[in-house]
Amino acid sequence: MVSRNRILAALGIVLLAWGLWYFFPTRQRQVGRQLKALAAWAAKEPGEGALAAAQTARQARKFFADPCTWSAEAFELSGRVSVDEISQYMFAARSRFESLSVKFYDPVIDVQEDGSALVTATARVQGVQRDGEALNETHEVRCVMSKEDGDWLIRKVTVVEVLRK
Amino acid sequence: MDARLKAFLFPSPTPAFVFRALVVAAAAYLFFGHVCTPFVIRGASMEPTYRDGSVDVLWKPRYWFSSPSRGDVVAVRLAGERVVYLKRVVGLAGDRVAFKDGTLVLDGRPISEPYVQGPCRWNLPERDVERGQVYVVGDNRAMPIEEHDFGQTSVRRIVGSPLW
Questions:
Q1: Which residues pair with A151 in a beta bridge?
Q2: Rounded Cα gap, residues B113 and B125, in angstroms
Q3: C-alpha B42, offset from chain centre
Q4: Are B136 and A163 in contact (CB under 8 A)?
């Protein structure tokens, strides 16, 4: 039999390791948390009011550098975009939806020597538009992020064309 | 409760038991995570062959020692393998692929596709499949061509095929 003391000691070590991992995140984990915050920011619950929607859109500054470079040929979107433009775009886009969910899968976060982070992930956007039509978009995205004033901000977004018609 | 049943449901954590449990957990992780991974199909692009919401298993060793062939249903990874595209290979490297009035045309010859059902009016100009690439399309050609994700992709992105 494994003694109770040994089990308690093992649990204590696991708890300590978890505490260190949670309260002292590496830069990779900080970027990962920022991606989760970005997904939560873009998501929309049914019944969200106009005021809350406007406040949410204004928080783009927490996630995007000013300006931010976009390269998304599939959406005919490319060039440098200001944070204010991103806020306006998000407000307009989210207002078309009754509900919206954004999730990032398989993020690969590579912190460079210059302090920036290269992030590759699968972004999945699902939602229901106001006219009832469903949206289900999945894309591979690559981002360049850098830490500014304590926040990891996205400086460049590239939507990878996995299937080229 | 019967003593044997109790011992089965609540085994004593002996070192041998802990070792066996760890071996079973590691084997299950390797098998279901890297060899034979269950997945749920989301979306209608492969209907009627694969229904939205149905469950299948991704057999990853399928292309470890071989290359995909025309007609194979394959999983195409994106950034990782948690979300993949499920598509059918219709063209290989060197092929010229086109759609004319809903019919797949390969190297100028119309191809019969029994797995495609429903009306299709797709038109797509001819294009070459490059080296190291395959051309993949979903079976559901009844949906508008603009809304359907398909096209040329690297063979290296193919991570297996569904078991059934």
A1: A148
A2: 19
A3: 12
A4: yes
pLDDT digits (tens, 9 = 90+) for B86-123: 999 999 999 999 999 999 999 999 999 999 988 899 99
Min Cα separation B53/chain A (Å): 14
The dihedrals phi and psi of B124, each to the nearest 5 degrees, come to -145, 125
Task: Give the predicted TM-score (pTM) of the model.
Answer: 0.85
Report how far Cα B145 is from the mean position of its chain's Cα atoms: 20
Ordered DSSP codes for A56-113: HHHGGGGTEEEEEEEEEGGGTEEEEE-HHHHHHHHHHHHHTEEEEEEEEEEEEEEE-T
Question: Shortest CA distance to A92 belongs to which of A126, A137, A136, A60?
Answer: A60
In terms of DSSP bridges, do strands A64-72 and A151-160 run parallel, antiparallel, or are they unpaired?
A: parallel
Mutation for testing the A interface, residue in B17, B39, B83 having most A CBs under 10 Å: B83
Please name the residue that has the structure tokens 């991992």: A21
| Cβ neighbours for A156, distance < 8 A, ≥ 6 positions apart | A68, A69, A70, A71, A143, A144
Pairing assessment for the beta strands A64-72 and A77-81 based on DSSP bridges: antiparallel
CA distance A107 to chain B (A): 7
Both tokens of residue A11?
């649990």
Nearest CA in chain B to A7: B13
Shortest CB distance from B79 goes to which of A1, A106, A163?
A: A106
Contact (CB, 8 A) for B88 and B71: yes
Amino acid at A126: Q
A109 — phi, psi (to 5°)? -115, 120
Query: ipTM for the complex?
Result: 0.86
pLDDT 10s digits, A67-87: 999 998 877 778 999 999 999
